[in-house]
């Protein structure tokens, strides 16, 4: 997966010059292979192919915190995006959705990166500067039923306008959601009126989608608080509910508790949750705490056709992504669990951000931060501001939704301490060591 950028790329063109600098700075074995350029104009099919390659490349490097924080690398990728799509720098209108479907239209430059667009949305909504870092922009695909499928969190070096328009489909949208996992940080956001309204709108939307698990009695209490316009009390109750603040992924397949098991994965509260149904059994849930994942890796492969024909439901040569993590099931027993999903890279990024947040909290730090400013730049405030609309009252709970039982009561959280680099059968460059991992003692079993 990791090898050097070709010399033809590294010494020609503006992006190529940056690539050469990066290769010298980080070494040939650190950088993933960069999608090669051609000397002649690209056909529409070649532009689309390069866009897909560039998207996979950006997701891959996002998993490396060293590269992700490099301004040289970020500048290199920003130019590569514009060059690939041949988009000139100009002012445009960009639509960003809130979790409740409300549209926020902002004026940005095609060359503006994610933090610039996020600032513009915050200015439009009148969200204070010191709360901007609590929210992020996500690229999603809107399904026929109106629900969202998460493609990825837009990264710092991305150009949101280029990212969404290059997909050439109206079903792709940009959505604003909170970016942290620990609900304790809600207190910071709820101090502000706009922050409170954004959290409230997101929570109502997640309940309606079935992402947050609610009993009939809890649903009745929540609706009563809505009728009283008690938003803070509504959120306090919601914080106690299962899967509050989680991101839910599309249905996929895992090898736990048995091979080829259909599951729905959710990420939040320092864990991955797998909802599944075994033959003849009710809906069950397995919770994998990030503090008990020794390491994880993302791998890709192209399934071989069976009998000379493509596999059912798969396009010819379609790449299959897998997230595998080594989990401490019990004392002295580690087991690899593999999830096969097109969203495997985003799952990995979620795991890394949860670990980062845990380590910041352990060190006594805070995620409260200001977004870094461009050199010589200032925060652009909008001439016309837009209020966050209050969502409608919750509808009656879906009678078809089942309650779940835990697969195991032993999958519980543990305390934190750092460890050295893990040793596995995979190459070190492919494995993400977890510095929030700790073994468990007899009292945890």
TrEMBL record:
<dbReference type="InterPro" id="IPR000159">
    <property type="entry name" value="RA_dom"/>
</dbReference>
<keyword id="KW-0813">Transport</keyword>
<dbReference type="Pfam" id="PF18116">
    <property type="entry name" value="SNX17_FERM_C"/>
</dbReference>
<dbReference type="GO" id="GO:0005769">
    <property type="term" value="C:early endosome"/>
</dbReference>
<dbReference type="GO" id="GO:0007165">
    <property type="term" value="P:signal transduction"/>
</dbReference>
<keyword id="KW-0963">Cytoplasm</keyword>
<dbReference type="GO" id="GO:0032456">
    <property type="term" value="P:endocytic recycling"/>
</dbReference>
<dbReference type="InterPro" id="IPR036871">
    <property type="entry name" value="PX_dom_sf"/>
</dbReference>
<comment type="subunit">
    <text>Monomer. Interacts with APP (via cytoplasmic YXNPXY motif). Interacts with KIF1B. Interacts with the C-termini of P-selectin, PTC, LDLR, VLDLR, LRP1 and LRP8. Interacts with KRIT1 (via N-terminus). Interacts with HRAS. Interacts with ITGB1 and ITGB5 (via NPxY motif). Interacts with CCDC22 and CCDC93; the interaction associates SNX17 with the CCC complex. Interacts (via C-terminus) with VPS26C and VPS35L; the interactions are direct and associate SNX17 with the retriever complex.</text>
</comment>
<dbReference type="GO" id="GO:0035091">
    <property type="term" value="F:phosphatidylinositol binding"/>
</dbReference>
<dbReference type="InterPro" id="IPR048763">
    <property type="entry name" value="SNX17-31_FERM_F1"/>
</dbReference>
<dbReference type="Pfam" id="PF21271">
    <property type="entry name" value="SNX17-31_F2_FERM"/>
</dbReference>
<dbReference type="InterPro" id="IPR011993">
    <property type="entry name" value="PH-like_dom_sf"/>
</dbReference>
<dbReference type="Pfam" id="PF21273">
    <property type="entry name" value="SNX17-27-31_F1_FERM"/>
</dbReference>
<keyword id="KW-0968">Cytoplasmic vesicle</keyword>
<feature type="domain" description="Ras-associating">
    <location>
        <begin position="90"/>
        <end position="181"/>
    </location>
</feature>
<feature type="region of interest" description="Disordered">
    <location>
        <begin position="376"/>
        <end position="401"/>
    </location>
</feature>
<dbReference type="InterPro" id="IPR001683">
    <property type="entry name" value="PX_dom"/>
</dbReference>
<dbReference type="InterPro" id="IPR037836">
    <property type="entry name" value="SNX17_FERM-like_dom"/>
</dbReference>
<protein>
    <recommendedName>
        <fullName>Sorting nexin-17</fullName>
    </recommendedName>
</protein>
<keyword id="KW-0653">Protein transport</keyword>
<comment type="similarity">
    <text>Belongs to the sorting nexin family.</text>
</comment>
<keyword id="KW-0967">Endosome</keyword>
<keyword id="KW-0446">Lipid-binding</keyword>
<dbReference type="InterPro" id="IPR040842">
    <property type="entry name" value="SNX17/31_FERM"/>
</dbReference>
<dbReference type="GO" id="GO:0030659">
    <property type="term" value="C:cytoplasmic vesicle membrane"/>
</dbReference>
<dbReference type="InterPro" id="IPR028666">
    <property type="entry name" value="SNX17_FERM_N"/>
</dbReference>
<dbReference type="InterPro" id="IPR048767">
    <property type="entry name" value="SNX17-31_FERM_F2"/>
</dbReference>
<dbReference type="GO" id="GO:0006886">
    <property type="term" value="P:intracellular protein transport"/>
</dbReference>
<feature type="domain" description="PX">
    <location>
        <begin position="1"/>
        <end position="84"/>
    </location>
</feature>
<comment type="function">
    <text>Critical regulator of endosomal recycling of numerous surface proteins, including integrins, signaling receptor and channels. Binds to NPxY sequences in the cytoplasmic tails of target cargos. Associates with retriever and CCC complexes to prevent lysosomal degradation and promote cell surface recycling of numerous cargos such as integrins ITGB1, ITGB5 and their associated alpha subunits. Also required for maintenance of normal cell surface levels of APP and LRP1. Interacts with membranes containing phosphatidylinositol 3-phosphate (PtdIns(3P)).</text>
</comment>
<dbReference type="Pfam" id="PF00787">
    <property type="entry name" value="PX"/>
</dbReference>
<keyword id="KW-0472">Membrane</keyword>
């Amino acid at each position: 997966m990791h090898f050097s950028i070709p010399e033809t790329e590294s010494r020609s063109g503006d992006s190529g010059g940056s690539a050469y600098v990066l290769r010298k700075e980080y070494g040939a074995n650190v950088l993933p292979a960069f999608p090669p350029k051609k000397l002649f104009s690209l056909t529409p099919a070649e532009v689309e192919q390069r866009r897909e390659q560039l998207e996979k490349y950006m997701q891959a490097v996002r998993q490396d915190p060293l590269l992700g924080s490099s301004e040289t690398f970020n500048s290199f990728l920003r130019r590569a995006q514009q060059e690939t799509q041949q988009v000139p720098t100009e002012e445009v209108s960009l639509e960003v959705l809130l979790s409740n479907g409300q549209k926020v239209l902002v004026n940005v430059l095609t060359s503006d990166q994610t933090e610039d667009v996020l600032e513009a949305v915050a200015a439009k909504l009148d969200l204070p500067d010191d709360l901007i870092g609590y929210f992020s922009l996500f690229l999603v695909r809107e399904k026929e039923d109106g629900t969202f499928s998460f493609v990825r969190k837009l990264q710092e070096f991305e150009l949101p306008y280029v990212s969404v328009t290059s997909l050439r489909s109206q079903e792709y949208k940009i959505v604003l959601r909170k970016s942290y996992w620990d609900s304790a940080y809600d207190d910071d956001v709820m101090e502000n009126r706009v922050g409170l309204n954004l959290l409230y709108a997101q929570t109502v939307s997640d309940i309606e989608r079935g992402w947050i698990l609610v009993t009939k009695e809890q649903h009745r209490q929540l609706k009563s608080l809505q009728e009283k316009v008690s938003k803070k009390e509504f959120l306090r109750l919601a914080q106690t509910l299962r899967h509050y603040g989680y991101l839910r992924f599309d249905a996929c397949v895992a090898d736990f508790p048995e091979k080829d098991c259909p599951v729905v994965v959710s990420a939040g509260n320092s864990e991955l949750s797998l909802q599944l149904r075994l033959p003849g059994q009710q809906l069950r849930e397995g919770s994998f705490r990030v503090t008990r994942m020794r390491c994880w890796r993302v791998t890709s492969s192209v399934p071989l056709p069976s009998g000379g024909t493509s596999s059912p439901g798969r396009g010819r040569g379609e790449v299959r992504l897998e997230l595998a993590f080594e989990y401490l099931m019990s004392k002295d027993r580690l087991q690899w669990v593999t999830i096969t999903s097109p969203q495997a890279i985003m799952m990995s990024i979620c795991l890394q951000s949860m670990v980062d947040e845990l380590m910041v909290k352990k060190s006594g730090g805070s995620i409260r931060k200001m977004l870094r400013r461009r050199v010589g730049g200032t925060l652009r405030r909008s001439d016309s501001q837009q209020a966050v609309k209050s969502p409608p009252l919750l509808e009656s709970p879906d009678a078809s939704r089942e309650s779940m039982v835990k697969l195991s009561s032993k999958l519980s959280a543990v305390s934190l301490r750092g460890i050295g680099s893990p040793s596995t059968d995979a190459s070190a460059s492919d494995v993400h060591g977890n510095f929030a991992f700790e073994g468990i003692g007899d009292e945890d079993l």
